[in-house]
């Protein structure tokens, strides 16, 4: 049985990051689902719920991104892997797309389709790629202990 070696850095910061990082991901996936439901049904409930979810996801994305910013760019210049930097940039671009998505959701309900679906889909896609890169990084760098 093999396990991944624990990450370096402040244990409290790692714990805060690990606890709060999945919350925006869940909010953005739910936003995508609600946007698809609205595009298919035209029930205004779905677009209002998606607007709240994208806003909530953006609010919860602040703290993990700040922790990631400090760990990758400020304190860990020698320790940060290329995968950590790629994860940071993919998450940052996803958050920028989510901000544009929040602006799209602020329009009238009938004016949001199809931009809301595309922005939500690209946001979720970037977050999925970032999670895969982050999950596979220990295996590529040899930080997996047999």
Descriptive account of the structure:
The chain is an all-alpha fold and 146 residues long. It has one domain. Helices cover 77% and strands 3% of the residues. The chain has helices spanning 11-20, 22-41, 44-74, 82-105, 115-141; strands at residues 3-4, 144-145. A two-stranded antiparallel sheet has the order 1-2. Helix 2 packs antiparallel against helix 3 (44-74) and helix 3 packs antiparallel against helix 4. The longest helix has 31 residues, at 44-74. The N and C termini lie close together (6 Å). InterPro entries: DUF2231_TM (IPR019251), UCP029509 (IPR016923). Keywords: Membrane, Transmembrane, Transmembrane helix. Pfam families: DUF2231 (PF09990).
């Amino acid at each position: 049985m093999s396990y991944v070696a624990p990450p370096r850095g402040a244990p409290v910061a790692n714990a805060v990051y690990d606890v709060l990082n999945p919350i925006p991901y869940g909010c953005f996936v739910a936003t995508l689902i609600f946007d698809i439901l609205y595009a298919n049904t035209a029930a205004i409930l779905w677009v209002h719920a998606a607007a709240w979810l994208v806003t909530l996801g953006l609010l919860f994305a602040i703290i993990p991104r700040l922790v990631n910013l400090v760990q990758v760019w400020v304190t860990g210049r020698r320790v940060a892997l290329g995968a950590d930097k790629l994860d940071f940039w993919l998450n940052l671009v996803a958050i920028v797309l989510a901000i544009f998505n929040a602006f799209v959701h602020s329009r009238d309900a009938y004016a949001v389709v199809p931009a809301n679906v595309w922005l939500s889909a690209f946001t979720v896609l970037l977050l999925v790629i970032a999670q895969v890169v982050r999950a596979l990084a220990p295996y590529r760098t040899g930080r997996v202990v047999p």
